[in-house]
Amino acid sequence: MRILITGGAGFIGSTLALALLSRGHEVTVLDCLSPQIHGDDPLHRSALYASIDGKVRFLHDSVTDASQWPRALEGQQAIVHLAAETGTGQSMYEVHRYVDVNVGGTALMLQSLAQRPHEVSRIVVASSRALYGEGRYRAADGRVVYPTSRRAEDLQLGRFDLYDEHGVALELLPTDEESKLHPSSIYGITKQTQEQLVMTMGAALGIETTALRYQNVYGPGQSLSNPYTGILSIFSTRILHGRPISVFEDGLESRDFVYIDDAVDATMAALFEPQAQGQVFGIGSGVGTTVSEAARTLIAKLGRAVPVEVTGAFRIGDIRHNVADLTKARRLLGFVPQVGFDAGIGRFVEWVLKQPLPVDGYERSLKELKDRGLMRG
Known about the structure:
Elements: E1 2-6, H1 11-22, E2 26-31, H2 35-38, H3 42-45, H4 47-52, E3 57-60, H5 69-73, E4 78-81, H6 88-91, H7 95-115, E5 122-128, E6 136-138, E7 144-145, H8 152-156, E8 171-173, H9 186-205, E9 208-214, E10 216-218, H10 231-240, E11 245-247, E12 254-255, E13 257-259, H11 260-272, E14 279-283, E15 289-290, H12 291-302, E16 308-310, E17 314-315, H13 327-333, H14 341-352, H15 362-371, E18 375-376
Parallel strand pairs: 1-2, 1-4, 2-3, 4-5, 5-9, 9-14, 10-13, 11-16
Antiparallel strand pairs: 6-7, 6-8, 12-15, 17-18
Helix pairs in contact: 1-11, 7-9, 10-12, 12-14
């Protein structure tokens, strides 16, 4: 097939592009090579771009440029729409940029498909677990509930967990695709809108569409110098610089870390599996790992002793937990994660230790949040 990957020079996109090429597909990549991800002079210094350079048809442009879409879509049979600004915290003060790229760029793609003849028969859109907000829980009386965003007043008092109306702690449940959508950040709102735009317009245009709600994807190739997203990369960079790791809240907040190869396998299945048409899927490992545990594992694997400081501070828009229920993805996509967290971290660290020492911009990112009142405690 002839496949367009927007954001195809990024972490997931470049790995997917190479996987598709290895199976004989023709790949076009549309990517603006954002300095936040690729650094300065990305055409000559970005390892991610270098991995696909000369192997794909590359269009160095932005999804927000309406004039480039006819050229990007020409001759394409499928689209994997990965291009997006990512990062919960940054989205809360770079609101226009997140909306412009994630929503506006998607709208321009769909508008171009609606206005011109094309050969596109399939779109896979990268959605996010951020759509679920705090996710799915069970109350003491057995009810399944979907808590709203935690109150800053409670977080300030160190009440980080989620409670029912009587103050009784809720039990975390894996989040399935039927769970309530109520994002707690601008990033989550833009991803929900992006997903709904693609699913609605795809059906209207007779294009088969699938949305993948990725959990926290990690692994070799992830940007080590982007301080706004990718907690494992941020921690790794801090460790390599010999600087302490600051863990928010009480360190017991958890994330579902899914290895890059598993995420790409799920994306390939969504692209080619007929049963994926018109469906949304949660894509993760199905296992929650606390942030403190992730930090300790990285320190052990990297072999560098740095302190872990559990600060009690919190970011507005962060969630407490989220773990994917993979029942539907397993049934319709045949998706079964192959790489556990310990093995995945081992592979990630092996790659990290071969990279040049990255710039550590984490303190700057925290200051930006604090200056805007979005980080407290």
